[in-house]
Amino acid sequence: MSEEWEPKIIMFCCNWCSYGGSDTAGVARFQQPPTTRIIRVMCSGRVDPTFVLDAFLEGADGVLVTGCHIGDCHYINGNEKTKVRYEFLKRVVEEFGIEPERLKLEWISASEGDKFASFVKQATEDIKKLGPSPLKPEVVE
Amino acid sequence: MNVGECYIGWAVDEDVRKRGGSGGLVVATLAAALEKGLVEKVLVLKKHSTYDAEPVLTSDPEEVLASAGSLHAVPAALSKKIPYGVKVAAVGKPCDIRGMYQMALRQQFNLDDTYLIGLNCGGTLPPVPTRQMIRVMYGIDPDEVVHEEIAKGNLIFTTRDGQEHAKKIDELEEAGFGRRESCRYCIVKIPTNADLACGNWGVPKDKLGAATFVEVCTEKGVQLLTTAVDAGYVQVEPASDKSKEIRKKVEKAMLDLSAKWRERIFVPIENRLEFYREALRHCILCNACKEVCPVCACGEDSKCTTMPSSLETHNHEFYHLIRFLHIMDSCVACGMCTDVCPAEIKVSTLQARYSLPFQEEKGYVAGMKLEKPPFFEVE
């Protein structure tokens, strides 16, 4: 087990944009690290802050939330609500001493396969630098 | 009588005037509202002892008058004590009333049916430590105390023999007694969000202890006070400019003191994750903090209570994460969560670490107005 440590990243993708973006990335064969576990949601607005905190407590090293670009939401303004919520969430995560780089929000449309791949790449690199999350059950115990 | 006007008033009934904290105006107003049919019920504090009182909903004017002079309610979310659709008049500290506003914002409480009398508050004292403090710091028998007062930075207890015992609050708080922690950094001292804001700050010297300064804040406040005056329960005279000035001065002094305490209490922490883990480690998941919270509107199956499983011990202490997040925009820093915590976690202060700077950044004081908070601006 001398392999390099790979972070576990939970990624929430909106059904209409960023999930399509991940498809585009795959079809176009953009290279990206296999660190993410994608959870498809119907809208980034569905991502309750509880999900994010729970992911951290269950051992995720990072959580990425992605949705449609502002103005493109399939449900009119779901992603704007995500933005508001994210502001709260970021504060709590930061104040708790968890590095802010572990939580990211990005707007990715279905056609932006390259953006999707580079976002995952960048996030993985950032989180790799930070090392395992301090909230991991095995770290805590 | 108009909105925005200030009066000095007192109860006409001599017995009430004597027993009441400052002239018995508040109980007399409540009793009048009940008697004249302005409200169906009144939420008053039923006195158990000088240090203890319990909020009770009553429709008996006698019981209302009997509540004169009550101090220090037990921790209770007042809005949860008031049934829907019943016209009620209630008394509360600024934080109690702010809690009601927050519940009204979340459609859990009907402010239209509620007449609110707010009491100026420089901080409240926890009953048991206070008895101890009186014994240790003042050297008097706590059962002898009949009245207490905060004036000019002094905490003054009056004993049965009429003698006043004063000590500097700073001195008491240095010694580990004094006001509850959340009161020390509280930012609302005069409840201008209530219909009537009452208190003894600004009462002229000759009437001190026998009259109350009232600010009429809303139309409902006008109704309350005119009803009481017309019914002959209460007498009022317009407050002089000097009175208003003194009231402002006292408020400012209290707020300055709060600002000082804030700096002392909210010192930046180095290893925050460790700090919170240590602070929350003893949480036993009893949910008492959620039960008593005046701004928590989720009800039975709230996310914060369903989140941690008792099988997973590694994240017990982070049950509070959800609460911190949920209440960040609405916390009024009343401190009741700290009061009820069986594990003696300073929940309120931990919460305030998030909520106060966040609210401040947006220029928002939770629970003062019935309008959408600035956090949820979705164009």
From TrEMBL, chain A:
Protein name stated in the entry: Hydrogenase iron-sulfur subunit
F420-non-reducing hydrogenase iron-sulfur subunit D domain location: 9-131
Record carries keyword Iron-sulfur: yes
Classification lineage: Archaea, Methanobacteriati, Methanobacteriota, Stenosarchaea group, Methanomicrobia
Organism field: Methermicoccus shengliensis
First and last residue of the signal peptide: none
Gene Ontology molecular functions: iron-sulfur cluster binding; metal ion binding; oxidoreductase activity
This protein's UniProt keywords: Iron, Iron-sulfur, Metal-binding, Oxidoreductase
InterPro entries to which the protein is assigned, alphabetical: MvhD/FlpD
From TrEMBL, chain B:
Gene source species: Methermicoccus shengliensis
Name of the protein: 4Fe-4S binding protein
Gene3D superfamilies: 3.30.70.3270
Keywords, in A-Z order: Iron, Iron-sulfur, Metal-binding, Oxidoreductase
Lineage: Archaea, Methanobacteriati, Methanobacteriota, Stenosarchaea group, Methanomicrobia
A single GO molecular function term of this UniProt record: oxidoreductase activity, acting on CH or CH2 groups, with an iron-sulfur protein as acceptor
Presence of the UniProt keyword Chaperone in the record: no
Domain 4Fe-4S ferredoxin-type: 271-303, 322-351
InterPro entries, sorted: 4Fe4S_Fe-S-bd (IPR017896), 4Fe4S_Fe_S_CS (IPR017900), Co_F420_Hydgase/DH_bsu_N (IPR007516), FRHB/FDHB/HCAR-like (IPR045220), FrhB_FdhB_C (IPR007525)
Cofactor(s) the protein requires to work: FAD
